[in-house]
Amino acid sequence: MGWAGLSLLILGLCLAAEPLSPNAPHTQHRMDSDRPPDTLVFGQGGLLICGGEPRSCAPLALWRRGTPYRWLSLIDGERHLIARADGAPVFLLGTDALGRDLLARLLHGGRLSLTIGLLGAGLSVGLGLLLGGLAGHRGGWLDALMMRGVEVLLSIPTLYLLLTIRGAFGAALRPEDAWWVLVIALSGIGWAAQARVARGQARSLRAEPYVFAAAALGLSPTRIFFKHILPHALSLGLINLTLAVPAFIVAEVSLSFLGFGVQPPTPSWGNLLIDAADVARLGVAPWLLAPAVALALAMASLSLMGDWLRERLDG
User: Fold this and answer.
1) Which distant-in-sequence residues (6+ apart) come within 8 Å of 226 by Cβ?
2) How many degrees, rounded to 5, is the angle at CA 170 between CA 168 and CA 171?
3) pLDDT on residue 162
4) What average pLDDT does range 243-271 have in this prediction?
5) Which residues of the chain form beta strands (DSSP E)?
6) Which of 99, 238, 272, 312 is most buried by its number of CB atoms within 10 A?
């Protein structure tokens, strides 16, 4: 369960982006462009934060007032976990070419990418279980119609279909609207693969003795499905969910990296990787690789958690 803990830790840090970030993600500190990460050192006065040009140190201050924010667009606040006692800006992961705090952009961008992956995967798995399970349970024309639609959807290259859907809305799309477009597009395409798996399991489950017993007692096909078929398919759906989340996150990151996802200046892990793709820039500012490291950790933890869960449920 260590990987599950790491996944939850990454998600928790991203959800708490506002109080954990010393600065706002869009604020430009032009005098601190490409500034290296600040360091924490022990001095005579305790723990110090050192950074800047010329390099200066100040005592570490916790939970200080700073830039006002609205946490999760719900709660107003102005306190930040880490600050310098002298009031100078803190950049724990350095800054980009425009002087924006990379830690703030990493956490805010991670929250966007992770929530798109989680919600998109959840919707696709839920829709696939429902539609595929109903098709497999009822059979007949419903099964034939549903599977023909699934086959058509799966025959279209996913990346091209996503690019077409996103491109239809234009580049001048508000970040919150782009978020919903990506969630709906990913779940609207991803449910097909989930439905085919759910259909096969439903066809297997309807041959179980307890299903025949329920039908003999007079239960309607709909009640049999929701009471006996769907609950037994949920374990498979949970496994598919943990395996689908990394794929959906990578899809969002790929679209944003290509310029078809969330557009700058709103951060996502995808558009943050654009700077990391410039080898010449990495020679000057290697800390720009931080989003790639965070993405790799998230993908590894989610994938290994899915493998662990599959082994436990299969065993």
Assistant:
1) none
2) 145
3) 87
4) 90
5) 39-43, 46-51, 56-71, 75-84
6) 272
Assigned token pair, 96: 């980009």
Residue 121 burial by CB count (10 A; 0-12/13-18/19+): exposed, middle or buried?
buried
The residue type at 240: N
Q: Which residues contact 24 (CB under 8 A, 6 or more apart)?
A: 67, 69, 101, 104
pTM attached to this predicted model: 0.92
List, edge to edge, every strand of the sheet that includes 46-51.
39-43, 46-51, 56-71, 75-84
Count, residues in the chain: 315
193 vs 204: CA distance, rounded Å: 18
Give the pair of three-digit tokens for residue 143.
């099964």
> Residue 299: helix, strand or coil by DSSP?
helix
List domains and CATH numbers for the chain: 38-90 (no CATH), 104-314 (1.10.3720.10)
How many Cβ atoms from other residues are within 10 Å of residue 79's Cβ? 14
